[in-house]
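step=predict obj=4Fe-4S dicluster domain-containing protein n=209
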Amino acid sequence: MDITDYLRIVADEIHSVVVATVDEKDLPSTRVIDIMLYDENGLYFLTAKGKVFYKQLMEKSYLSLSAMTSGPDTMSRKAISISGNIRNIGSDRLEEIFKKNAYMNEIYPSKASREALEVFCLYRGQGEYFDLSTKPITRDSFVLGGAPLQKGGFLITEKCSSCGICIEKCPQDCIDQGSPYKINQEHCLHCGNCFDVCPVNAVIKAERI
């Protein structure tokens, strides 16, 4: 999948997501919001100018979101997380948002009442896709708006002695034999078992997990 597939899942398939901002004491502040639109430039949502959420967005211009698809149980769901920069685009696309999300007309029924609203775009950042419905699990990292990609997890270096202990401990069987052994990053849980058990310290942490 590409970036637009991930954004479509967030906006259309999931829609209601948990977002985190930072308050005036630099403490995390979370709430559930609806993602109203998406395109190749990012995700779009709105809020009222009188809300604390609006104040935090204007002061920090950054947020993180987490979203999960519905399903009968955890093992049938997919999760997406994105952290990045947001910008206020005012009333741009407000009419489009109300047309696509008809329920908003019940909350703000008149044009006069909608003057309280402003639209924001999450336009630059990094995200991760995590699918527990596949065996082994599937994960992928992606970027939005040209942000640098910082992949996390663990790597096996040339110090590897090919002893096989890490393979025995890997819950997803995602380590291939070789010289050195190699972790299949798209299936790795980032659990750290390989890092903990390697007798020659051949496994290192990537910068971002």
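step=describe
The first strand starts at residue 16 and ends at 22.
step=end
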